[in-house]
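Predict the 3D structure for this chain.
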Amino acid sequence: MDTSIPDVYNRDLRPKRGASVTAGLVSALAVSTILSGCGASSAGAHPAAAPMAATASHRLSGTASVAYAGSLQLVNDQFVAPAFSAATGLSYRGRGGGSFGMAHLITSGQIRPNVFESIGTAPIRILMPRFTNWAVGFASAPLVIAYSPASPFAAEFKAIAAGKRPMKDLFTLMENSRFHLGRTNPNTDPQGQAFVMMLALADRYYHLPKGTAARILGGVNNPNQIFAEEAILSRLQAGQLDASSAFLPEAAQRHLPYIALPAAVNLGDPADARTYAQADVTLKGGKRAVGAPLEIYITSVSGAPNQGAGQRFIAYMLSKPGRTLYQQEGYTLTAPVFFGNRSSIPRSILAVAKQ
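Done. Predicted structure below.
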């Protein structure tokens, strides 16, 4: 399995002026007492700490080093990071890539983040039990088809998005030999798996002609369609693709037009989990992945430096200010979902998640 991912988001982001920082400052006093419970000790031991104020005189040391699914790059680096630093005095460093690829980089020791944020629980399982045995889900994002306004198929896309043409026409367009489709690697990225399974679900939902999904894909691992998650939408914006898979918040954040898919096929609604489980994809090496809701999970990574800073980031992310930032960027907030060994979740994080 190819786990090589370009280190394009490995950077330290300090507080900046802007609306997101203001939001963090307004809420800082409300969450500071809870956040202060996330001390520098490991899970289970949480020494008391004085309430934090977002001022230079109360800066605390340490860096929250976050490895995240590439689709979360904008919301994490541009919005959550400065608000988190303003509220806690801690610095932030983020790195994005396909969730499975990032998980393998962690287990191989190539990167040492103290926080891991993935799409779905399957990448979390790769870290278990050595690096973590728990995670908390807090938001979801449906799959959409983003398209280029400069595409020769743009008029058809627009008509489908507006409901003026049937959704089935979308799949007919994607079969066209002149159509340039982009998707992410199903072997390293949950979005890549989701796109393949979306086609399988759509095949049944719309009663598409036999072989439609296979003709669209040209093979699950078709190299002509597969691009890195953190670069695929840039290619779309540059006009190199007619359309690509995307999460709804990504398309909205980049002001890309998109076609919204029904909940029965977009893998974005936890209520449709049983329907999604009817789809699967066979990956390299014969491993089979089964459809599941595209939910965002977060966990700490044991053995990495600055455990306290990482736990404070998770607590902030699960607090009202952190969740609100995700909601403002188009993610659907869900009731906290506890995965793995709930008793291992640090008490300070659990307290925030249960609020």
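The first helix runs from residue 19 to 35.
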